[in-house]
Amino acid sequence: MTFACSLTAAACFSGGGLLTKPAAGLGRIVPTVAMFGLFVIGAALLAVAVQSDGEIGRAYLVVVGMETVLALAIGVAIYDERLTTVLIGAVAFVMSGTAILAQGSI
Fold this sequence. Notes:
The chain is an all-alpha fold. It has one domain. It has five helices and no strands. The chain has helices spanning about 1-20, 20-25, 30-55, 55-80, 85-105. Helix 1 packs across helix 4, helix 3 runs antiparallel to helix 4 and helix 4 runs antiparallel to helix 5 (about 85-105). The protein is flat. The two termini are about 20 Å apart.
């Protein structure tokens, strides 16, 4: 249950973040409402994951790690962003830090 909530929360946060481009600085109503809706759903699912797991640090770190990978994948797939060595290295760096922090919170 916790992993499913965390994964769905990460997907919602990633989707909401990626909707900032179509929202055009909150100038377009439909993408803006969808963006905020996804952020609210993501926060609610993170709260459920924290309640199930009992530790906010670990649940949040799982969401942040998955969100990083999902944002990269969605950006490449939908917005035709280039997948460069530097970008892959940066994501690996963030994931390494997240893994190290998660080990410390267990």
